[in-house]
Design a protein that fits this description.
Blueprint: E1 6-15, E2 18-27, E3 30-35, E4 38-42, E5 49-50, E6 61-68, E7 71-73, E8 76-78, E9 81-88, E10 92-100, E11 103-110, H1 114-124, E12 129-131
Antiparallel strand pairs: 1-2, 1-6, 2-3, 3-4, 4-5, 6-9, 7-8, 7-12, 9-10, 10-11
């Protein structure tokens, strides 16, 4: 992802106080999300902190979103959906599920390492298959 491109995904924020719809923005190595009127930004999903609020970390919650992620096999792109579940507490746990070709490929990582989880998913794909685009290359 270049610094000129912006990815926008809709999803859900949940904590003990309830749930609300959110919009996640990833732009040139930064991730941001607004929750209950507070903007959280960071270099990764696991490092989201409040801007202008003393840098309070986003914690004690779950973020959930889906995004399209084509898979290319033999030069042909096929639609797939990447479901993301990020639990932020004492540590960040990230669960990714790629729904592709009638199969669900799963990867779970501690620390919220998005690229690491994508690499695990990539390793499960059929031989010769790869993601049709990059996501969060610097995040």
């Amino acid at each position: 992802m270049s610094s000129e491109s912006t990815e926008v995904w809709t999803g859900w924020y949940r904590d003990r106080r309830g749930a609300e719809a959110i919009v996640i923005t990833a732009d040139g190595g930064r991730v941001s999300v607004r929750v209950r009127g507070i903007e959280y930004t960071g270099a990764s999903f696991a490092a989201l902190t409040a801007a202008g609020e003393g840098g309070q970390a986003l914690t004690g919650c779950v973020l959930e979103w889906d995004l399209p992620l084509p898979v290319v096999t033999g030069g042909a792109a096929q639609q797939a959906t990447l479901s993301c579940l990020l639990t932020l507490g004492e540590r960040a746990d990230l669960s990714l599920t790629l729904h592709y070709g009638g199969t669900a490929f799963e990867a779970v990582v501690a620390g919220g390492d998005f690229e690491g989880a994508l690499a695990r998913l990539r390793g499960q794909l059929p031989e010769g298959a790869d993601f049709g685009r990059r996501l969060l290359s610097a995040v």
